[in-house]
Specification:
This is G-protein coupled receptors family 2 profile 2 domain-containing protein. GO terms for molecular function: G protein-coupled receptor activity. InterPro entries: GPCR_Mth-like (IPR052808), Methuselah_N_sf (IPR036272). This protein is α+β, with helices and mostly antiparallel strands and 485 residues long. The chain contains twelve helices and twelve strands. It is elongated and about 95 Å long.
């Protein structure tokens, strides 16, 4: 009996020792799992993100969705980032089939806490990188979302409640890896033209509008001026007047630039297309209708005008459609300096086409000059004298009219090319603001130049007065009427 009791006691002792050993082992194991190295983050005792922000103070400034809320994409539609992973992390846009898939959420911000309202939104895209210098985030290592006002919400995935809201940013996909990158500005490209300067240029444009309307009306209404040249000049002036009017409305009354921008782009581009057609018409007159003595019939006149309308309006429409498809802003480059590659890309369908049109216009007018020289060598100007027979190969009246028109077009072309060179210099090589505002002021008074060149210098006063007199709206003295004859 005593032997059995001793054996039982020994078993109980061994069992207690084993239990104590297991507890000690578990304690040691728990201690080891909580040991951290210098490269590990401290494990929090709470959830990664708070489930309830009711105990936190709501932020005074909350994101609000408005019609101006946009998701900013770095590259044009159909293009994405190509990042050179060097010291500068340079990024450029390349063609791609990848799309940006970024979640836009509706949130309420609290002090170190974010409440998701669990409703997703869709924001329109705004194209462009607004940064001079920037931080680079990617969705594999960082956590970022876009909130309802278009701001970027950047969160620390290893912290409980820290976050930042960024206004100046852009998001896009890396072309090769498919990783989504967020470029957040350290310093952004700020507005360099104040509102007073914008209003001054807009007022100058408003001054130009009546001048352009007068030129357009006179050449369209008066029969003596209603030639192919006159109708081309009339439509050209009307396009510039319409573009200036819309541009002034946008900047004076702070209207939405996106919708109006494409209309402004269309009319300004049409203006330069029509100027090119004006130059071509002069060249056709010199080399065909004067040199070969082929008068313009009504059918040829309609053919010319139909061709000019097709070239001008279809060409402008194609450029505007391409701009819209890429998601680029349509507003022309006035008041803009190309500090970044993104800003320069925004004008790809405005500055290069206009530069090309002006260059072609220069070559066409140079061809017209050589045409006049050829006619001069043939002795055409001498035919205006009464003692010399008129050459059967040329109508001297048409010759003189075309020659005067060519001089006026050349003068306007000189002004356009000069101001456009200033535009290119100030856009691609940003410099002092005074040069930019002076160039825009010269652009704003183009309508005054058109009036002075084609009505004053061209000496259309007599024709206009005669037309006004025939309408019975103006009483002229006998001496003035004799001056017309």
């Amino acid at each position: 009996m005593t032997h059995k009791i001793g054996t039982l006691f020994l078993l109980l002792l061994l069992l207690s020792l084993c239990t104590a050993g297991e507890l000690e082992s578990k304690k040691d194991l728990t201690t080891l799992t909580n040991v951290k190295t210098e490269n590990e983050y401290i494990k929090s005792s709470t959830n990664q993100f708070p489930e309830n922000c009711s105990q936190r103070e709501k932020c005074k400034t909350q994101p609000i969705n408005t019609r101006n809320s946009h998701l900013r994409k770095c590259c044009p539609i159909g293009e994405s980032l190509s990042i050179a992973h060097d010291d500068q992390n340079r990024a450029m846009c390349v063609s791609t089939s990848r799309n940006v898939n970024i979640k836009v959420i509706n949130v309420t911000l609290y002090d170190n806490c974010i409440e998701d309202m669990e409703s997703e939104l869709s924001l329109p895209l705004e194209i462009g990188n607004p940064c001079n210098t920037s931080f680079l985030y990617n969705d594999e290592e960082d956590l970022f979302l876009v909130v309802q006002d278009g701001s970027l919400l950047v969160m620390d995935p290893y912290a409980n409640d820290t976050y930042s809201v960024e206004k100046k940013y852009c998001i896009d996909v890396e072309n090769s890896s498919g990783t989504t990158y967020a470029i957040v500005c350290i310093t952004a490209v700020e507005d360099h033209i104040n509102r007073s300067q914008i209003v001054i240029v807009a007022i100058l444009m408003l001054i130009s509008i009546p001048c352009l309307v007068l030129v357009s009306y006179v050449h369209f209404r008066i029969k003596e001026l209603k030639s192919v040249h006159g109708m081309t000049l009339s439509i050209m002036s009307g396009c510039l007047a319409t573009g200036y009017f819309l541009y002034s409305l946008v900047h004076i009354f702070k209207l939405d630039e996106r919708g109006f921008g494409y209309a402004v782009q269309f009319f300004i581009l049409s203006y330069y297309f029509w100027f090119f057609c004006l130059c071509c018409n002069t060249s056709f007159n010199v080399w065909i209708h004067i040199s070969l003595n082929k008068p313009k019939t009504q059918l040829i006149t309609y053919l010319y005008m139909g061709s000019y309308c097709s070239v001008s309006f279809i060409g402008s429409s194609i450029l505007v459609i391409l701009t819209y498809q890429k998601g680029l802003p349509g507003m022309p480059s006035y008041f803009i300096q190309g500090y970044t590659e993104s800003i320069r890309e925004s004008q790809r369908y405005f500055i290069p086409p206009v530069s090309t049109l002006l260059l072609l216009s220069f070559f066409v007018m140079a061809g017209s000059f050589f045409g006049f020289q050829k006619l001069k060598r043939r002795g055409i100007p001498l035919a205006s004298k009464q003692d010399v027979d008129i050459s059967p190969l040329c109508n001297i009246t048409v010759y003189e009219e075309v020659k005067k028109d060519a001089k006026c077009i050349s003068l306007l072309g000189l002004i356009l090319i000069s101001t456009w060179l200033l535009e290119i210099v100030t856009f691609y090589s940003p410099g002092p603001q005074i040069y930019l505002i002076l160039m825009d002021m010269v652009n704003g008074v183009q309508g005054v130049f058109v009036l002075l060149i084609f009505l004053i210098i061209r000496r259309r006063r007599r024709i206009i007065f005669r037309w006004w007199s025939d309408r019975g709206s103006l009483v002229l003295e006998k001496l003035e009427l004799e001056a017309f004859n």
